[in-house]
Structures are given as C-alpha cells and as structure tokens.
Design brief:
This protein is of the alpha/beta class and about 425 residues long. It has 2 domains: about 260 residues, Type I PLP-dependent aspartate aminotransferase-like (Major domain) (Aspartate Aminotransferase, domain 2); about 45 residues, no CATH class. About 40% of the residues lie in helices and about 15% in strands. It has a 7-stranded mixed beta sheet. The protein has a 4-stranded mixed beta sheet with strand order 1-2-3-15. The chain has a 4-stranded antiparallel beta sheet with strand order 13-14-17-16. A hairpin with a 5-residue loop joins strand 8 and strand 9. The radius of gyration is 22 Å and the shape is globular. About 45% of the residues are buried. Pathway: Amine and polyamine biosynthesis; ectoine biosynthesis; L-ectoine from L-aspartate 4-semialdehyde: step 1/3. One of its GO terms (biological process) is ectoine biosynthetic process. Belongs to the class-III pyridoxal-phosphate-dependent aminotransferase family. Its cofactor is pyridoxal 5'-phosphate. It comes from Anaerobacillus arseniciselenatis.
C-alpha cells in the first residue's frame, strides 16, 4: 500500500467524508501525532471527533489489551456476564459514579453514539407513555432514524428519506441572540394550551454542541432546563457522547452546572482506546426495561471493556482534571489573541474546555484554514451549519509542546489567508 488514494476513489462509497478533508493514507499514530505512508507527521487536533480523548495507542491501555487477547480473553459476549465487563462496571462505579454522588444503572445499548441515543429516546417514551420529544436547534445526536429525528442539521436530516416525526425543536441557549431568553419561549409553549406543543416524554440536549457549532449552554440555562423538566414530569436526557469523558473539563460535561439528568448518553471516548463502546446511564427508578427489550449483537465488546477500565485510571485522582483545565486556558488565551490580532476574522470564541473554536462569518474561511493547516501538518475540522467554525479538539493528554506547535500552524494559516483575502479585496 502506498500513499495513493486511487483504491478508495474506485472502491469506497461516495458517502466517505473525512478522507476528502484529510487526503492522505494514514499508517501510524501515537499520542497526539499521526503519520502517513510517506512518513509525513501530523499533529492531531481532531482526536477521532472526540473518540480519542486519551490520544492514540495509550501505552497502558495497549498493554492491557494485548495481555487480554494473548490470554484468549472473551472478545464477543452479547450481554453475558464476563470478567471484563464486571471489572469495568466495578471501576466505573467506584471511580466515576460514587465520588460524584451519582446513582445510575448502566446499560450497554450497542457500540456507537446513535445506539445510546436511540435507547434513551425509547426508554423515555416507555416510562412516560408520551410520544413527543423536545430537541434543540443545531443539536446533533446521531444518524439512525430516532437520533436523526432530534438532530437539527438539515443536510443530515434529508438523508433519512422519510419524514422525521414526534419531535419539536426549540431554540438552544443564545440561539437567536444573547438578549433573548429562550427559556421563556420554551416555557410559554408548554404552558399555553393553544401552542400546539404537547408535554413531551423527554428533552434531549448537548451541554456543548459539537457538530452544531461548538455552542456552549450556560450553567444557569441548564439548571433552568432541569427545573422545567422536574416541574412538568419530563425526563432530561443529556447527550454526552462528544462533550463528555473530560472533553469540556470534567468527566461529565454537566458537573459544574450541578444538574442530575435522568438519562445520560456516553460513547466515543468511553472506550478509552478508540474501540466501539456506548453506555446509557439510567436513574434506577426508571430502569423499567423488560429483558431483551432493547438489544444489539455487539453490546458486549469485551476488548473495549478492558481499555475502558484502564482509561478510568486517569480519573482516580484530580491531577488529570487539573491538567485539562490548564490546557483549556491556554487554548482560550490563544483563540482570544488570534481574534485580537486578526480582526478580519470577525471571530468569536466558542465552546468550553478542550472543545473550543472560532466562529467566523467570512464565507469559506474556516474551511480554508482547516485545509491549509492540513497541508502544513495539522488535522482539524470545521463545525456549524455553514461550516463556519474551525474547532480545536486535541487529545486531553497532549503536552504543551504539542499545543504550541498546533497553535503556530493555525496562526500561520490565519495570517496567510487573511492577507490573501485583503489583497483580493484591494484589487
């Protein structure tokens, strides 16, 4: 195999996406670096869209995984009891749930983020006996029919090929402007018998919207959402598939808001190593599933249990969380300085933790910055309905040298592109 993309062009479906934005053949990865077939090194500010929060090929996880495989550990088990699953459940409870005073049953719905969202929606409807769900503008929750119905992106929704029903979309925090209180709007719809909006089974939201534009809800807004749900008997589902597992600074993205969702959806980095795994956390009183009522052939990915268990070692003390906070502040400072140095960006810093970016209204600029960054050895993607945000998603384990190298490439690209656009405009 060489660095030629011909085989992918000829044989892989046209649905392929990231290979178009990052047109090379990758061969090796370690930590925050990836190398292609020609040996060119790239800094990874993408981290598997949030699936590689601990970086590539973490030494301890790799060691545990190799040992498990070499000992003929069970790979596939559906939802049978295995030692790997038991070890994960015990450590997750002791390291994550108990210290946070959280009481949840753990469901393994299948291997991906959309599986956990589907199970959450299904359970909410079963518990409440209601049909509709309230989702929020620019939310992204997955690509299967249920999760797609609560997703805002029009292009993704059109791929369904059928009407997406039983969902009412409400404005996310600051969707219209910072001056418009979207909670008043939402509450009015629930209170008014003439609004046409029935009391829903659940509300589902991301505390920081990844694909939707790195929009961060305020802690106050999240608290008011929780209060509203409690008053109306609506289940609150937090989709922490991308924003969770430390990405926004704490293990769960909603911790600093002090809320206790009824259902929490986890996937992506919960497996630690990039292996497929998803969890649905359910308050015990609403865990009313009948055995096998929701299932999936690959809900027992034991190799992912092994690496997931080892990944929780990062959270046994508060040192890892402190390091994320320090790096997050560096990212915020860099992005803020970038806006100040280059007002032509007309930029706004978005997001929280190591899930931040700059939104620019200059048409196509965010995409051009990502494309030029790739040529210079940095992998980064856009977000938002118009791809107007370039977002920084480095592994949480990246060191300061890696961050600074990435910053330098981004600034070099911004400087070059802003100068080019000024020159074109002057002609």
């Amino acid at each position: 195999m060489n660095n030629d993309l011909k085989i992918f062009d000829e044989l892989e479906s046209s649905v392929r996406s990231y290979v178009r934005g990052f047109p090379t053949v990758f061969k090796k990865a370690k930590g925050y670096k990836i190398w292609d077939m020609d040996g060119k090194e790239y800094i990874d500010f993408f981290a598997g869209a949030g699936a590689l929060n601990y970086g590539h090929n973490d030494d301890n996880m790799k060691k545990k995984l190799i040992e498990y495989i070499m000992e003929d550990g069970i790979a596939h088990s559906l939802d049978k009891a295995t030692d790997a699953k038991g070890d994960f459940l015990e450590k997750f409870n002791n390291v994550i749930l108990k210290p946070r005073n959280m009481d949840y049953k753990v469901m393994f719905p299948g291997p991906t983020g959309t599986n956990t969202v589907e199970s959450a929606l299904k359970l909410a409807r079963k518990v409440t006996g209601r049909t509709n769900v309230i989702s929020f503008t620019n939310g992204f929750h997955g690509m299967t029919i249920g999760s797609l119905s609560v997703t805002g992106n029009q292009a993704k929704r059109e791929g369904a090929g059928i009407p997406l029903q039983h969902v009412v979309t409400m404005p996310y925090d600051s969707f219209v402007s910072e001056n418009l209180d979207t909670m008043e709007y939402l509450e009015r719809f629930l209170e008014d018998n003439g609004s046409g909006v029935e009391i829903p089974a659940a509300m589902i939201l991301e505390t920081v919207q990844g694909e939707g534009g790195v929009n961060a809800a305020s802690f106050e807004w999240l608290q008011r959402i929780e209060d509203l749900c409690k008053r109306w008997g609506i289940l609150l589902i937090i989709d922490d598939v991308q924003a969770g597992i430390g990405r926004t600074g704490t293990f769960f993205s909603f911790e600093k808001a002090g809320i206790k969702p009824d259902i929490v959806c986890l996937s992506k980095s919960i497996g630690g190593y990039g292996l497929p795994l998803a969890l649905t956390l359910i308050k015990p009183e609403i865990d009313i599933w009948n055995p096998g009522e929701h299932n999936g052939t690959f809900r027992g990915n034991n190799m992912a249990f092994v690496t997931a268990t080892e990944s929780l070692t990062y959270w046994e003390t508060d040192e890892f969380e402190k390091s994320i906070a320090e790096k997050s502040e560096k990212v915020t400072q860099f992005l803020t300085s970038l806006i100040e140095k280059y007002p032509e960006l007309q930029g706004e810093v978005k997001g929280r933790g190591l899930m931040q970016g700059i939104s620019t209204p200059v048409e196509g600029l965010a995409g051009e910055i990502c494309a030029m960054s790739f040529k210079k050895g940095l992998i980064m993607e856009t977000a938002g309905p118009e791809d107007q945000v370039f977002k920084l998603f480095p592994p949480l384990t990246i060191d300061n040298e890696g961050l600074e190298k990435g910053f330098a490439i981004i600034e070099e690209c911004v400087k070059s592109l802003v100068a080019t656009k000024e020159a074109v405009a002057a002609k």
